[in-house]
Amino acid sequence: xxxxxxxxxxxxxxxxxxxxxxxxxxxxxxxxxxxxxxxxxxxxxxxxxxxxxxxxxxxxxxxxxxxxxxxxxxxxxxxxxxxxxxxxxxxxxxxxxxxxxxxxxxxxxxxxxxxxxxxxxxxxxxxxxxxxxxxxxxxxxxxxxxxxxxxxxxxxxxxxxxxxxxxxxxxxxxxxxxxxxxxxxxxxxxxxxxxxxxxxxxxxxxxxxxxxxxxxxxxxxxxxxxxxxxxxxxxxxxxxxxxxxxxxxxxxxxxxxxxxx
Length: 261
Fold this sequence. Notes:
Layout lengths: L2 H4 L12 H10 L7 E6 L3 H4 L8 H21 L3 E6 L10 H9 L38 E6 L11 H8 L3 E7 L1 H14 L3 E10 L4 H14 L2 E3 L1 H22 L9
Parallel strand pairs: 1-2, 1-4, 2-3, 4-5, 5-6
């Protein structure tokens, strides 16, 4: 029997238009500039580059410039930039039970086919991942790199990103990266569960698992627990938040002492 015979669709699914509500939620969101950072998740060369990956290049050509421009805008504004990248030792690769089944059946989880090259450099030493960020994104001086992400979809298990976040004193995150439906969403859910505020940047995320799951994630997350906005809106909001912070600081600064006559 086929999957659909065992799990028949009871009806066609229609996406409910909640855009008006989501826009109002975004408008009501107050951003504290000093407590905000940008997080880039898993935009590896080996995840996106056509020589390594089956990632759809029309998607890469669209989202990479958006992500790069957004990261540069964040740097210009003075925001922390955090790159979270997967690293696994050879003994750790493919240990997840579902990964073994996929390998055994030859059925990849992406509809775009098998990648042209293995996802990991066989001779790479531990901690080598600085080269692996898509070059258009950095890393650049002052960026932070988390290269101990071993649990695949979780940015928090086995990494020190939470320690870094607490040291930076931030609690609001604009998130770019892949895949929208797992690693990006999982960071956002994990951050939400820590009482923080993640915001997915909608035109700077993508998925190897199909446009349907990408669109599902962009509906699921902001409609249930978080926020989502375009990179243009995000830059506008961040610029305004910085200006508001500077105005408040200037207004509360003590007046200069008067010189003695």
